[in-house]
Write a structure and sequence with these properties.
This protein is an alpha/beta fold and 250 residues long. The protein has two domains: 132 residues, 3-Layer(aba) Sandwich (Rossmann fold); 98 residues, OB fold (Dihydrolipoamide Acetyltransferase, E2P) (Beta Barrel). It has eight helices and 17 strands. A hairpin with a 4-residue loop joins strand 8 and strand 9.
Amino acid sequence: MKILIIDNEEELRSGLKKMLQKHCPPETLIEEAEGVNSGLRQINFLQPDIVFLDIEMEDGTGFDLLRQVAQPAFQLIFTTAHNQYAIQAIKFSALDYLLKPIDPAELEASFTKAINNINKTDLGRQLAVMMQQLSSKPDNERKLVLNDKQTTYFIKLSDIIFCEADGPYTKFYISNSHPILISKNLKEYEELLTPQGFVRTHHSYIVNPDKIKMYDKTDGGALILEEGHSIPISQRRKEQVMQLLEKNNF
């Protein structure tokens, strides 16, 4: 196995390498690079299995580097300080990241996941979703990447009807498709989707306003969505939902 650490902080590279060596077989090759240009050279030469990539470096960003990799064939783990804008884009694409300073337990979990996914080839498509999210241009074709145990799904935001909490999981209801159950809680997807215009109507539901067909006033009120779904409105969320309905002329 070949691992590449790309980071402009020598101390971080050294510390990360030492932590990785505790979990790697003795024959594992761990190489380093200090920036975009040296990182690209190492990727082309080494053909790594796993890349740990800093976001902000002296000669550019990790995103600048990735734009220059034609066919990425490695597992990618970002390393970053608290860059919330970048983290949101990373989450949208279901890519992995570690916050600096790197916690050993979190590193072990990310590293194990990367090894388990070593043969997956979705990185190029996931990066396209991330770059789209980083773009300042509005785009009706924006996508969200969802991973379950067997499959990686690339879902258009415009095709999501609503999301439902299912214990610690979230169930996505998609237009003309079967529901998808994801092992992340609804709160995490609320943080991603509400800036995109989605609305939390209830502690168990997030709704795509474009999928609302009518407002049913009986029994405390409910939203009737495409494909006949009926979504309750909690008292706590009612004022916000009513403002949304008024804005959309319901």
